[in-house]
Amino acid sequence: GPIRRHFSIGTVTLINQQEKSIRIGTMVSASKGQAAERISQIADMGFESFEPFFWQTTNGQDIAELGKRCREAIGDRDITMSTLGMFGNPLEETDMDLQTLQGWKDCIDNAHHFGATCVAGFTGRIRNKPLPDSLPRYKQIWSELAKRAADKGVKIAFENCAMDGNWATGDWNIAHNPDAWELMFNETPDDNIGLEWEPCHQMVYLIDPLPQIRKWASKIFHVHGKDATIRWDVIREHGIFGKHPFVLMRTPGFGDSNWTDIISELRLAGWSGSIDIEGWHDPVYRDGLEMTGQVHGLNHLKQARGGDFVVDPV
């Protein structure tokens, strides 16, 4: 009868929400026009989402058409593309910086062709100046882009990667430190400006990433699956500015982070979305072992979220 049907619909909705509240996927390079082909190659490896990303420029690609081809490559598989990546420095005005800024506009305008609701990347930075010197230009550029994105129902997420910069100097990005987040979100209090967060970039600065989730969860729009191994023995003997690397970026499952705790904290904060693996950084599982590492990371993260969703037959 109608009551039973109502319950079925409710249950199905609940199942879909629960089962897919946190998806595990990977990043796919889109800079050279091979994104759809790459998705076709790896779509059956168990990934539940993809983040197509551009490095500095879209190279004049038709983004709407690319989105259509990526969706065709996914076909009827239960895979989403919640986030597009656009990584460059849109605050300065060299030719490439201007291409990055245009890339942001094009990604925001065309995100819906991928089914995406978020565009992620770096804030940009006034090069080789102390971090706060970038704030006026940051406010100018991102207030405008935030409005453009809000009109399209799109969120903007800044990756917390320092790109070898620090507070005193650097390039690319200012969103790599929680003190900077305070300054940035003060300049752009827009609801649709937040973070593309990952533990790795905090560990590179010996910051404990886990408590950040409790404080900043409402600003975490997308998560990168990347980890780090901190070599405390190297730090004690050689320090952090010596010739020996004191920290290694790792694929999840090979680093120091407890992803079970990370995902539990995200769930406790009511977070849902995609954790997309950012590969190509692990010093061991790379090149010929890249996809071995990524699929291990995929399975590790699925396990850390509690495995597959199980329906209670009650």
Explained architecture:
The chain has 314 residues and is of the alpha/beta class. It has eleven helices and ten strands. The chain has helices at residues 2-19, 35-42, 63-74, 95-110, 135-151, 178-187, 199-203, 210-216, 232-238, 259-268, 290-304; strands at 22-29, 50-55, 83-87, 118-121, 155-159, 193-197, 220-225, 227-230, 247-250, 273-277. Strands 1-2-3-4-5-6-7-10 form an eight-stranded parallel barrel, surrounded by four helices. A two-stranded antiparallel ribbon has the order 8-9. Strand 5, helix 6 (178-187) and strand 6 form a beta-alpha-beta unit. Helix 10 crosses helix 11. Residues 1-15 have low confidence and may be disordered.
Keywords:
single chain; 314 residues; alpha/beta; eight-stranded parallel beta barrel; 11 helices; disordered N terminus
Write the layout of secondary structure elements.
Blueprint: H1 2-19, E1 22-29, H2 35-42, E2 50-55, H3 63-74, E3 83-87, H4 95-110, E4 118-121, H5 135-151, E5 155-159, H6 178-187, E6 193-197, H7 199-203, H8 210-216, E7 220-225, E8 227-230, H9 232-238, E9 247-250, H10 259-268, E10 273-277, H11 290-304
Parallel strand pairs: 1-2, 1-10, 2-3, 3-4, 4-5, 5-6, 6-7, 7-10
Antiparallel strand pairs: 8-9
Helix pairs in contact: 2-3, 10-11
